[in-house]
Amino acid sequence: AQSVTQLGSHVSVSEGALVLLRCNYSSSVPPYLFWYVQYPNQGLQLLLKYTSAATLVKGINGFEAEFKKSETSFHLTKPSAHMSDAAEYFCAVSDGGDYKLSFGAGTTVTVRA
Amino acid sequence: NAGVTQTPKFQVLKTGQSMTLQCAQDMNHNSMYWYRQDPGMGLRLIYYSASEGTTDKGEVPNGYNVSRLNKREFSLRLESAAPSQTSVYFCASSEASRGGNQPQHFGDGTRLSIL
């Protein structure tokens, strides 16, 4: 069975600063990994996914994530935060054995002007 | 593109009442899912349907039933609502993938309060 841990339930950054959201996973097999974003009163939208093609994955809105097998991590970054990045972010993992995803608890990002 | 459509968007129930949440997708996806979202707990899978005609329990199925009406529609029923079922419910769909590498597409949720 797979599981996901997101370090930090809240992150506050200044506009223009680096955004770093941490995600660690456990999986007995090579995983598929996803980052989703949720804006207030909306559903989840896919930011990016890792499916073993490349360890550095680029997503929408300037976000990217790096898969590090040795650290079992899939951290999300954006070089320069924008006010529109204020949202909740979820990391999710699939072990490929079935159709299900396991989600982390989420990290809420606040952007200060 | 409508994507995944959930109805209703908001609902208030009294304890013991029953209700069906509706979900429809127009992406011709084979797999559909129901989640609940509670503060600090991420999304937890209630039930899923890998393909038309099949349903399986997820992590938190107690108190819920589902029906995969056809390829497009997947409904969630609360037979006797309890305050512990107050939550935001999300429906999602994905292309059939035994390998789990296909992303899921989400509706905007149903906000359900049970008094």
Distinctive features:
heterodimer, A: 113 residues, mainly beta, five-stranded antiparallel beta sheet, 11 strands, globular, B: 115 residues, seven-stranded mixed beta sheet, four-stranded antiparallel beta sheet
Q: Helix and strand succession of chain B?
A: EEEEEEEEEEE
Summed up, the helix count of chain A is: 0
Report the oligomer.
Answer: heterodimer
Q: Give the low-pLDDT segments of chain B.
A: none
Q: Supply Rg of chain B.
A: 13 Å
Topology, number of strands of chain B: 11
What would you note in describing this structure?
The complex is a heterodimer of chains A (113) and B (115). Chain A has 113 residues and is mainly β. Chain A is built from no helices and eleven strands. In chain A, the strands form two sheets. In chain A, strands 2, 4, 5, 9, 10 and 11 form a six-stranded mixed beta sheet that branches. A five-stranded antiparallel beta sheet of chain A has the order 1-3-8-7-6, with no helix packed on it. The N and C termini of chain A lie far apart (41 Å). By secondary structure, chain B is mostly beta strands. Chain B contains no helices and eleven strands. In chain B, the strands form two sheets. In chain B, strands 2, 4, 5, 6, 9, 10 and 11 form a seven-stranded mixed beta sheet that branches. In chain B, a hairpin with a 5-residue loop joins strand 7 and strand 8. The model of chain B has no long low-confidence stretch (mean pLDDT 92). The chains are: A mainly beta (113), B mainly beta (115). The interface between A and B is medium-sized, with 26 and 28 residues.
